[in-house]
Structures are given as C-alpha cells and as structure tokens.
TrEMBL record:
Lineage, broadest ranks: Bacteria, Bacillati, Actinomycetota, Actinomycetes, Streptosporangiales
Protein name (database record): Transcription factor zinc-finger domain-containing protein
Organism of derivation: Actinomadura sediminis
Superkingdom, natural source: Bacteria
Length: 112
C-alpha cells in the first residue's frame, strides 16, 4: 500500500519498528511515509474518533477502531459500489499492480 499523500511505496522492512504510520481516511486504512510525516498537515487529513477525537484509528474487518479509547464503529465502504459502477476497473488496476510486483520479485520480464 503506498503513502496516501505522495504515493511512495514501502520497501522491505528492517528489524525494529516501522517508521511508517497507519491511519484512516474516508474509512479506508492508509499509510503515511516518513517523508510526509516530516511535513505539516498530514494528521489533519485523517479521520478522527467520534468519542475522543484521536487520529489513532485502524480499519479492519469492516470496522474502524480507535487505538486510544477502543471506540468502534462500522466503516462506510463505497469502494465496492464504485468498482461495480466502473465495470471492475478497480480490480483490473489491482491485478496489474500485483502482476508487476510479482514480475519484479521473481525477476521475470513484463507480463504478456
């Protein structure tokens, strides 16, 4: 998953804690790269907990949970509706991205 602000991709992790941060934006899990974290305003673009106003949210299994207070709510997911309206364009984009990643990892030429 790329950084939601600049599109940078994570590289293979080194031992220890990751410098990348997680957040939720429009009820979707997002990552923030170290470069964007150094800038200002990125935290203002994230969703906030309705109970405690924290930005420490995670989205999993259709729920958004606050890591600070434990408040949970159902995630509003419209990506499936959009994918259907676009004729599966979202799925095709993901498939092409996965194929390119496998080719890089397996040192194969472009998929044909």
């Amino acid at each position: 998953m790329p950084c939601f602000r600049c599109g940078a991709r994570q590289t293979d992790p080194v031992r220890g804690a990751s410098p990348w941060r997680r957040g939720v934006r429009a009820d979707h899990q997002v990552l923030i790269c170290p470069g964007c974290q150094a800038g200002h305003g990125w935290a203002d673009e994230l969703d906030r907990c309705a109970a405690c106003d924290s930005a420490a949210l995670v989205c999993r299994l259709g729920e958004v949970e606050c890591r600070d207070c434990g408040h949970t709510r159902e995630a509003v997911r419209d990506d499936l509706v959009r994918a259907g309206a676009q004729g599966g364009a979202v799925d095709r984009d993901l498939s092409a991205e996965v194929a390119a990643a496998l080719n890089r990892v397996l040192s194969r030429g472009p998929a044909g």
